[in-house]
Each structure stands twice: as structure tokens, then as C-alpha cells.
Write a structure and sequence with these properties.
948 residues; alpha+beta; seven-stranded mixed beta sheet; 29 helices; 18% strand; globular; RNA-binding
Amino acid sequence: MITTTHNNHNKKRVIFANQLQTTKSTTNIMEYNFREIEPKWQQEWKEHKTYQVEIDPSRPKFYVLDMFPYPSGAGLHVGHPLGYIASDIYSRYKRLCGFNVLHPMGYDAFGLPAEQYAIQTGQHPAVTTTQNINRYREQLDKIGFSFDWNREVRTCDPAYYKWTQWAFLKMFGHYYNNKTDKAEPIEKLIAHFEKQGTEGVDAACTNQMRFSAADWAAMDEKQREEVLQNYRLAFRADTMVNWCPKLGTVLANDEVKDGLSVRGGYPVEQKRMKQWLLRVTAYAQRLLDGLERLAWSDSLKEIQRNWIGRSEGAQVFFNIKGSDKKLEIFTTRPDTIFGVTFMVIAPEHEWIDELTTPEHKQEIEEYVAQTKKRSERERIAETKRVSGAFTGSYAVNPFTDKEIPIYVSDYVLAGYGTGAIMAVPAHDSRDYAFARHFNLPIIPVVEGGDLSVESYDAKSGKLINSDFIDGLDVKEAIQVMFTEIERRGLGKKRINYRLRDAIFSRQRYWGEPFPIYYKDDIAYPLSEDKLPLELPPIENFGPTEQGEPPLARVHNWATPEGYPYELSTMPGFAGSSAYYLRYMDPHNDQALVSKEADEYWRNVDLYVGGIEHATGHLMYSRFWNKFLFDLGYVVEDEPFKKLVNQGMIQGRSNFVYRIVGTNKFVSLGLKDQYETQEIHVDVNIVKNDLLNLDAFRAWRPEFAEAEFILEDGKYVCGWAIEKMSKSMYNVVNPDYIVENYGADTLRMYEMFLGPLEQSKPWDTNGIDGVHKFLRRFWRLFYNRDGMLNLSEGKATAAELKTLHKTIKKVREDIENFSFNTSVSAFMICLNELGECNKREILEPLTVLLSPFVPHITEELWQTALGHTDTIFDTRFPEYDEHYLVENSFAYPISFNGKVRFKKELPLGVPNEELEKQVLADSNTARYLDGKTPRKVIVVPGKIINIVI
RNA sequence: GCGGAUAUGGUGUAAUUGGUAGCCACGUCAGACUUAGGAUCUGAUGCCGAAAGGCGUGGGGGUUCGAGUCCCUUUAUCCGCACCA
């Protein structure tokens, strides 16, 4: 049936959540009234400081941490609390299991958006940040989290960033000793220089240095400081940086994606600038090794491994014809050295001028100038394009003594290895493309492949044309060459990492100031007792006309003696790198964390957060923690034992279809009969993909006179999964859900939506199912007239079985973070219990449910069940396997109620081990024929019969 | 290009980890109660078929008594890295 309706003519009414509650709540006052219950308990928890925790050596600790939010102006949407709800359920569960649970929350409050907003509006970032924090807090409070707010931290609070600055000073004052494999005071290195110069020093550094004690003695202060900057763990260096002109600041590698800034999406270019850096690379191997011991997902560990990018290879020196210099290269394939037919150096290579002969000078200069002009983005886009130029110089292959030409090309990166390579076109696709383009010889040294078409890059095969390694397999040959290269003194075995040192300065205002001042252009650390160095107030937040950072606008931004402070500020990851330590002892003004607090709380047992921090925060935190560990300030060398990545919640957008050039809208099923235009419609005026016509007319003035072509009297909307954003009108606000369904329904529904780690769209359709569950649960305690309905009768075996089955399932599910299936378990439990209103069943069930839905359970606990203590003073229910035994047959606890087989077990004997054995054996034995018992398993002392 | 993950009804998902695929919900349909239903309750609902029955976990192949699950291959989507020598 197709009907065209006009204003108010649609007879059939459509159901909407926002209309639904208003009438219903008046019908029965003793229905489950979440609007009353939830604020009541939230107030109660607040007043009694229910979730405040202290060190308690008599109880085991458990530390559950969420990645603290950046308080953006948009507030929370329904996706943000997902991880918080999961961690809250886990915290409450652990607390009920008897752990002393630390579950704090705070704000990552420094950052770009607040500053961008300040530049536009002149509003101080501190003001907007505080407003946003207040809004966040309000929204969070409504959901009923068990955070210990007494421990709240804000990264922009001077009392907090004092310790960020403190850690920076410690890094400035330390270097990494490779021999002891830890950070040590820089004074120790200075003492060594005074005695022996660089002789015997094996330390992480920017450039390898070589000088004697006498050289050191002869240096002035500035020269010495330059040397030390080469070793300090926080140091200043002239380096290629990702410069974002639009944001007016440099960015770290993990803040750039595809040549664009992650925040804002502005183009990023490469620029040489003097910047502060953290020597993260010193910890590359330990960051890699540490992953083995962490209970993180394999995919996340793999991302970190790739980011660290360890590769084993050899450093080899090639003689340069007509020079006493040797060109150093790095290769992971020393076995292919007989196939080297040319060399390539990066355009930024420091010897480029020396290597260029006069007749090639112009060509090379042009090439270098041209590559400089290309932005990072263009270089990425033109990856396939082969370009380069010949320097005119030749190197000598140390194994064949053949002269081979040296080229310059931008496919060789200055920042990796030595910025120079030996090219083996037969077995490296990039070298191959280059050789083809410049007509260079290609010598196969590994059997296999068809070199007329492409290079043969495989890491297996037999060596040929390679003198003494002929006939060996690639893997053997590599090992032979390592020893041969070292024996001949041509170079050494070496490990290279893709990981780069972290650029630590930002040319911004809204961040931690560096506790550094300058005297004669030498950087000096502020003494620790002067911390915190507070961020001075300013009024204009943009860069100066000279392009200096905003802090240059501050008069007297200098020490009392008049020495100027550093003008840049620290990046976002500075404040988040050690916040988990600060939560342990947030009010301590003598230390980042006291010895006592650190030794009790140690590190984070469970960390819940998004995977987007894989190469940023999660890497920097580990580095930061390892550094503090080396110095003895913390007892654990990894900060986050277990990590769970919650998936992103996407938006589910709805569409209406306007017939082009009219104000008529056609329902989804009929839209193909017209020429239509797809328009996003606010998901809050759509339910179950049916449009609320009146709400649509009221939504925007231009739709006030809208007409509709309906199917079966309904307007069906189209839908699509997109990012949750204002412009798609698909943002669902948790406040709205809390108002209409309650926080408990929101909490449970977010978990019910699907596996925690999976990305999934938010879809308010379906929330009724969860809400209905809570109402039915309520009605087991109170009847329709609001009368207490609880029975003291004895539970039947079937009821007990249901209860214990559910306890077991929920327990396992919580431990495995499979919250969606535990919600299902509750629903099944309720279906099975029917009208059962026995205290014996409902009391444990209430406790079991409480981590998920704390408000309703607390209310029932104290009113219907008549307890005076809060639910959190009780223990999480234990299940009892004996209840599963019937007629001398034990049912393996098959959750969905199906019994696949029965096995005879001795009653009254704990039988977990026995069950395991039976299960292990029966899997192979069960279905050999059809129906009869067919296998007898003899377990020492017992005979077990398997029956189908 | 390399590495990782995922793919199951109209929808979100589940599956004792190799053992009756589709639990639990949403939606839909039918019914009960009701002034009303947008409350509540009951039943049906993977697909084809009147039924018997057949088909069915992205496609193809394999291992196995038995495969959503393991192996090979292929396609699609998502994520990470990307000239890393």
C-alpha cells in the first residue's frame, strides 16, 4: 500500500524512545524506577566515599586503569564509556573477590584542540579545559563508575606536571650505558671522559665520537656540553623533524600519518630544526624483549615490534677509489655481496660533496635540490618513481675488488642505517628498478627467479657466482659472511632499529614548560627545588610574527638572573607517560610516588584503552617507566601487565530520500522509483529505522512542510555505518540513554553489543531487550503493586542448577573479558528461573549482577533483601559443582543446557581433574558409532563410563 | 608491497575450542489481556519446500568417522608499517 500523507494526516503512529518513557513512568510508581534509584545511590557512594582506597597490606592489590580522556569540547558520546564500563565491571568484580582495587580516573588536559580553540576565540585554554572537565565529570558520574575520585590527576595541574618536569631533568642528567644495560648518571660519563676520553665507552649516542682525555680537558664548557648532548637521554639536537606549518609546530612520527597531521589533517613537511629529543632508541632492545612478558594482544605486540623494527645485519666498509675514506653501509644480506654492482647514498649523506666529481657537480646539486623540494607526501606518493644521479666516484667491492659506481638517490633514507647501501639488483626489487633505469649490470648470486622480469628477493636458495660461499643456502651464507667480514676487518655484525628518538618539543603554549634555561646558548637544567616551572599566563596564543613559539610573548620568561627559558613546551605524551604512577600517591609533593605506595601498588594489572596508542603513549610509557626503573624510583620495569583494547564504537547513520527538486521524501523501499537525494537524518528521531514524521518536520525549518511517500503507513529510513560525528547526525549521547533507560541499562547494553575488543556500530535498536531484562529482574522482588514478593522457600535442584551454572559462566566470562556472553547468561538464567522469587536464588544472583548494574542491585540488596551493608562488603558468589550432579550422573556444565553426554562420577568428591581427563579422552571417543556406551576410561581407582 | 585481523540468519551475535550450527537479544509474524497499545504475556521465526526432505558458517580444495573451528588456496573488508637495505 502506498499512501501519500500530509501534515498530521498519518493515522498509524510510530514508536519512539523519547515519547515512550514519559507516559509509562506514571502508570505504576513501583515499577523499576531507575530515575529515582540511580541518583540516590550515586549520592550515597559519593557521601560515604565508598570507592576510596588506601594501602592495605592485609589484602592483595589489584590495579585497574583506563586510558584517561582528553576532555574535548564535544563531551562524551556513547562510544567513549565502553572501555570504562568494562574496566568498572572488572574492578567491581575484583573487589567482590577480596582484592584491594585501585581504580582511578583523571584527565589528559594539555593538548592542541584547547589551544586551537584559544587562538580562534581568545579564551584561555585553562578556562575551556576546566569547563570541559566539569562536563566530562558530570557525564561520567551519571554512569555509576567506581572511580576513586580522591586520586584524580590533571596533567595541566602544576602539582602534577612538576613530576613530568622532574622526570625530564632526570633524563637530562642521565645517559645509557650499554655495558650495564641501564641508565646511569651523566657525571659517571664525565668522570670517564676526564680519565680516558671515549676509550672504553659503550653508550647510546647520536653520533659515534672519539676523543682522548686530553681532548676533553682542552674543551671549553660549550664544547663539552655539545659532547654531552650526544649522550644525554633528554637532549637537544639539530634534526630532521616533521614540521606542520598550519599548526606551527613539530610533530612526533606517531602524530603524522600519510604525510598529514593526525590532529587536524594538515600537510607536514621535513625540516631541519634544533629540537629536544628523548633517546628512546637506547631502550629499543629492552622495549622489544619486554613485550614477551606482557599479557597484551598479539596484534598489539606485533605493532610495537614492527615499530621498533629490529633487523640484524652487518656494517661493511667499502674503499673509495682515489680516497682514503671508506663508505660505511648496513646490510641484512651480506651473502649477496658478490652481486653488488653499484652503491647508493642518500641525498642528505654528509659526504655527498666530497664524493661528487667536478663534472657531475651540477647534476648532483640539481638532484639534491629537487629532492629537498619534494614534501614527505609527494615522496610517499611517488614511491614507484625511480630517480637518482651518478656522483662520478667509484667504490671497491672488498670481496671482488671490482670498481662500482656510487649513485645518489632518494630511495635511500638518511635516517636509517648509515644512509648508504650496497646495491644488489638481482635480489632487491628497489635496486633492480634502479639498475634497470640506469642500465647497470645485474649479477645473480642466488639460484631461482627470472631476472629478466623481476628481482629474486627470497631469503632462501643456493648461492652461485659467489666464490667461497657457492653452494651454501642463503641462511648459512649470511652466517659465514658475518664471520668473514669481521675476520677480514671489513666491518662488524650490527643490529639496526627502525625506532627513532622521540622529538620532545612543541612550539606551542598549552603544554608543560621545559625546566631549562640558556646561558650563552648552552642549555642548563633548572634545579629540582625550583619545580614546578609554571606556565605563565598569556593573552595571545598564536606564534609571534618572527615565528617563535607563543611563550616568546611572555615578558621576562627567564630566570631571576635573566637567563631565558626554553620557549617550546612538552608534547602530549609527556603528561601521560607516568600518570599511572602518580595515581598511586597523587598528593605527594616530595616524590612522584612514595616508595611505600609504589611497592604496594607496583604496576597496572589491567589496562583498558584504544589501540590507537600502540606506537605513541604505550611506547613512551614503557620507555619512561624503564628509565625510572633503572634509577630505582619504581620496582617494576613494565608499567602495564595486561592490556585490553576495546573496539571503536562507530556511528549508525540514518538517511531519508528527498525527491530531487521537491520537498517530498520517499520511503527506502520505494526510492528506486524516483530520482532521489540521500540526506542524513538525526538518528535520535528515528527508531528501528522508522522515521518520526512530526519530529522530522520539527527538526529543521526547511522540513516543516515536508511531505512523505510511505510504505505500509511507515517511513523506512536507510542506514549506513560511519564514524560517529556531528556532521553525520549519528551521535548518541550517553546522557540521553541514561535519561530514558537508566545507567544500568546503558552499562549492560554496551556490553551486550558484542565482543569488547571488536569495533562495532552503536545501534540504539535493541536496547529494549536489556531494559526489559532489568524490569523483569525487579519484578522477581516486587510484584506489580510494588509489594515485596520475596519468598523464603527452599530452592529446587533445577533452580540451584540454573544459579550455579550462571555463576560459573559469568565468572569465567568476566575473567576472559567476554562481557557480552555474560549478559546473555543472565538473560538465560532469568528465562529458566521463570517466576522464582526465592531468596536463596535471588540473593547470590543480585551480587553476581552487581558489577554490571550496580544501582539496581544495590537498591534491591538494601530494600528488598533487607541488608544493612552495601553489596560491596559481600563476596562474589562461588559455584558448587555438586549441584550439577543428578542420579549419580554428572552433567558436564554445558552452558546452553544441552547435554552432549553424561558421565558417571563419584558423588561428593571434588572432580575437576577427573572431569578434565574425561573430557580430553571423550572428545576422540564419543562418536565412534551411534548410541551405546562405547568406551570405558580407567582413571586410577575409578571407572568412568561415557554414555551418549 | 610486507605484516596482522575478520567473514555465521533480516540485524547484533553464540557455539562446551574438532562433536546436533544459529544460544541470547533485536526485528518480523501470529495470538492473549486491554478503552487503547507504544505496557505485559504466549507462540513461531536460517533458507527452499505443501510435506517428506534438501541446502546452509564469503568462494574453491584438503585432512578427519566428524570441520564455523585445523591445513592449502582465493575473494572482500578493516588495521598497522611502508623505498628500513
